[in-house]
Amino acid sequence: MTDPVLTLSGVTAGYGPTHVLKGIDLTLARGEPVSVIGRNGAGKTTLLNTIMGLTKMHGGAITLGTRDITALPPFRRNAAGIGLVPQTRDIFKSLTVEENLLAAQSGDATLDEAYALFPRLKERRRNGGGQLSGGEQQMLAIARTLMTGPDLLLLDEPLEGLAPVICDQLMQVFDDIAATGTRTVVLVEQHAEAALTFARRALLMAGGTIVHDGPAAALRGSDLLERHIGVALHS
Asked: Measured between alpha carbons, how far is 73 from 133 in angstroms, rounded to an integer?
């Protein structure tokens, strides 16, 4: 793999003394879209949190490009080019949509780019974050993270609890972001069909380890999906 944007080497991590990830080796190429699937408790969210610096490292190393970021706190990882959209969304509900976006703005990111991806946010730009629907809040959370100008975008179950029409809109946005080839996008998603359609490369996690790292198409029709997440998809 050429020009890696991120490398995890033997990473063991978790919360306090608990080990959730167990010896993870992973390399992400610059500009590639990757999906991560697995049952609840498989370690998917912990993987993203560890990349962001939100867990306790028990072993291994994390490299961003050629820079060792193993000991960097989350805000420095964000400044270095990693952006996380958490399940909790974490918008400022007392600020307007536009104030939320401007508060996160860094580098060359612009409001016009955010509004081009999410026209609904432009329509609602004067509304408070607490006045938005769940889908609109998720759009704002994603747009806020993009306003930090990340090279590596981490999306933690962004479709959870949303109406199918909103899920379709968000997946189109993720496709558009990935299609530019300028950002590495890692999508953690419970909807296996959406996840495997989004990315050519898929990681299947179980028990804090990666049990499949390869073509998403290879998981369709295999017994790995049924064995580890209880569904079967056909090619």
From this structure: 32
- Any idea how long the chain is? 235
- Edge-to-edge strand order for the sheet containing 201-206? 82-85, 152-156, 184-188, 33-37, 201-206, 209-215
Q: Express each pLDDT in 80-114 by its tens digit.
A: 999 999 998 889 999 999 999 999 999 889 999 99
Residue 45 makes CB contacts below 8 A (sequence gap 6+) with 87, 156, 157, 188
Helices 134-146, 164-179: crossing angle, 10 deg rounding: 10
Tell me how far apart the alpha carbons of residues 93 and 140 are, in angstroms, rounded to a whole number.
11
Q: How far apart are CA 120 and CA 97, in angstroms?
A: 10
Look up residue 95 and give its DSSP letter. Answer: S
- 205, 200, 199: which is closest to 23 by C-alpha? 205
Enter the tokens of residue 68. Answer: 């060792």
CA distance 142 to 89: 8
d(CA 137, CA 153): 18
0.90 cut: is pTM over it? yes
Q: Shortest CA distance to 226 belongs to which of 206, 197, 198?
A: 206
